[in-house]
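Write out structure tokens for DUF2642 domain-containing protein.
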Amino acid sequence: MNFQQALQQYIGRTIEVLTVGSLLTGTLLRVGEGFLVLRTSSNYYNPVEGDVTVFFTNIEFVRVLP
């Protein structure tokens, strides 16, 4: 199982994605070849509201929230 396949099982779940310089929290909408799409809402940690595409090469870690 690769990273893409591992993430696909969490579509629809709330996750945190740490990249260099940002921590995004939102609902995992889609996982593609080398990227994921996250629906975020604006708060202290998320300066962006809406659908955000994050490339795997920029991801430090992903945490699935309960």
